[in-house]
């Protein structure tokens, strides 16, 4: 644990190791969860005031491994310890990632069996949002991805669809590929492709299963069409393959 006096004596954007699971918020008001960070991750802390502030004051941070910005509650500063400048993690190649895909899929299946609900910003489990589940499952196997669905879509190698419907792309997909949904302009949802046209994802209450479930890209060709699968089918944007791991720029 680091004291406030020690914190203010450190240079701006000092690196810290997280010693306890943390909630990261999307604004200094700390009213909406953006993501979560598990113990052992690293962050940079910016613009620390010279005097101790309220435990509900938001402090600007940048999570290191995925370069994700956010705000940390003052009460959670006690869960940081200063650490020297970090070296970028090893960037994995496709063959190394491919070996880990079965364990990534197993991670998601195990998460599905635990008592949980959909949680916007959830990354720690047992409750996840869509991209939080994807990031956590890959990170558990040493593969870092960006945090949000649209960022993940931009990071992976796109898989061209020779047709116009999701069904047309299915023969070209491999287990462990990411499948994306949303509007014509932006990906807002992501799932993990399992094979046979099926994918696993964490979806919300308004359009989904309020947690982790399996759905299909086969549309009306599925032997048992499901309304949730059909809704996502209509919002399908495409798919991508994880060819390498994300590496932060220092």
From TrEMBL:
Residues 98-244 form the NlpC/P60 domain. Keywords: Hydrolase, Protease, Thiol protease. Transmembrane segments: none annotated. One of its GO terms (biological process) is proteolysis. SUPFAM superfamilies: Cysteine proteinases, Prokaryotic SH3-related domain. GO terms for molecular function: cysteine-type peptidase activity. It comes from the Bacteria. Belongs to the peptidase C40 family. This is C40 family peptidase. The lineage of its organism: Bacteria, Bacillati, Cyanobacteriota, Cyanophyceae, Acaryochloridales.
């Amino acid at each position: 644990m680091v004291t406030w006096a020690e914190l203010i004596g450190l240079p701006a954007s000092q690196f810290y190791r997280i010693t306890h699971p943390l909630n990261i918020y999307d604004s200094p008001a700390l009213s909406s969860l953006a993501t979560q960070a598990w113990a052992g991750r690293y962050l940079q802390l910016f613009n620390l005031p010279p005097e101790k502030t309220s435990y509900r004051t938001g402090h600007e941070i940048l999570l290191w491994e995925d370069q994700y910005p956010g705000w940390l509650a003052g009460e959670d500063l006690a869960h940081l310890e200063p650490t020297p400048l970090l070296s970028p993690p090893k960037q994995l190649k496709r063959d190394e990632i491919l070996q880990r895909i079965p364990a990534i899929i197993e991670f998601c299946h195990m998460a599905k069996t635990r008592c949980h609900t959909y949680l916007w910003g959830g990354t720690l489990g047992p409750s996840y949002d869509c991209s939080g589940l994807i990031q956590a499952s890959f990170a558990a196997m040493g593969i870092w991805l960006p945090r949000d669905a649209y960022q993940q879509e931009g990071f992976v190698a796109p898989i061209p669809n020779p047709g116009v419907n999701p069904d047309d792309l299915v023969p070209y997909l491999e287990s462990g590929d990411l499948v994306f949904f949303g509007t014509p302009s932006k990906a807002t949802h992501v799932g993990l492709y399992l094979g046979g046209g099926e994918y696993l994802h964490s979806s919300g209450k308004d359009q989904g299963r309020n947690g982790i479930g399996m759905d299909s890209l086969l549309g009306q060709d599925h032997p048992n069409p499901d309304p949730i699968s059909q809704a996502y089918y209509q919002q399908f944007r495409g798919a991508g393959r994880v060819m390498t791991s994300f590496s932060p720029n220092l």
